[in-house]
Amino acid sequence: MEGQAVPQNIVSLPIEIILMIINNLPSHTSILSLARTCKFLSGLSVRMLYQLNIRYENSSVFHWAVETGRIDLVENMLCGYSPNVNTVDMLNPGKARSETLTSNADKLTPIMTAVRRNYQSIFLLLLERGDVDFTYQDNLGRNVLRHAASTGNVFCVQKLLARNTIDINTQDKLGRTALAIAVKRDTKRHRDVVRMLLEVDEIDINRADKNGSTPLHISVRSHNPIIQLLLSHPMVKVNQIENNGSTPLMIATHRPDDTLTFNTLLHHTDVNMDQQDHRGRTALVHAIYRDNRQAVRALLRKGCRDIPDFRGMTPLSWAVWKQRKPIVEDLLADRSARGIAFSDADNPSSRLAVQHGNVEIMKLLIRYSIDVN
């Protein structure tokens, strides 16, 4: 049929015969060629193409209709053709089938595509169906709620949560939940998503990813004011450690310019500012290491303890070794004010000062009666 003229009287044949002819054409291209001859044959041919696509190509044309926002085509196929609404194949017109399959490498379903493109009308059509798989996870382990949360799609998150059929704590291949993804971005849309997720009774606010990071760790590392929403939740564990032993407070000391995040954590009722990481270092040592003098002073004002790490290095020794003269002075003054005597654990401080040849720090140590000889 392809490349040949179509007899003008074909339209006068019984529809059953025409459908038989179409059904026996050698390729989709042949069917399309026939469809172009007249409006009547076009209607019959297109219907046959839909049926063939659904039967033999896993409804890839349906996914293409969703991808391109063709709600008319989506409605038509849902009403009359029973497509696979969970297909992960994507029609890519004009390209080879191998390219068609790679165009959806993440294996998104139509409802995931509708969420990511914010096609609300198409999303609602799919949402109300009983055959959409809301538990499906794509190649990266993301479910439809995870996609909605990552894009800050408030409308879709609200509708999905209202169905109460999705595990809100489902983790992707990196162990991240919808909440863990939403807290990474500081936009009004993402804040609204976080609020909605936190209102769900089943939410596990402390669910950790493969690095041991909870949503609180992630929001602190992102320097995101959303931490205030997380800290207001009654089940939040403010002292939970990551795989490397870091608490949210320790992470907050790493950015001297972000005093809001640090102070918000420091003044939380349950915070343990003296907790040690896997090397025995406290938030005070982390602050010294990062030259975060404001954090050091805030911790000292709160009465943090002077705890050596597992190698025996005291906070003072760390400050001397990193040559943080202003912080050395703060630590010495705090000890003096609190009447804390210097012990053998502090001896490395003097040796380090001598090794570095830092005269100013040696003078400070001598002033506070620490032997530098």
Automatic annotation (TrEMBL):
Pfam families: Ank, Ank_2. Keywords: ANK repeat, Repeat. InterPro entries: Ankyrin_rpt, Ankyrin_rpt-contain_sf, F-box-like_dom_sf. GO terms for molecular function: protein-cysteine S-palmitoyltransferase activity. It is an enzyme of class 2 (transferase). SMART domains: ANK. Its EC number is 2.3.1.225. The keyword Repeat applies. This is protein S-acyltransferase. It comes from Talaromyces proteolyticus.
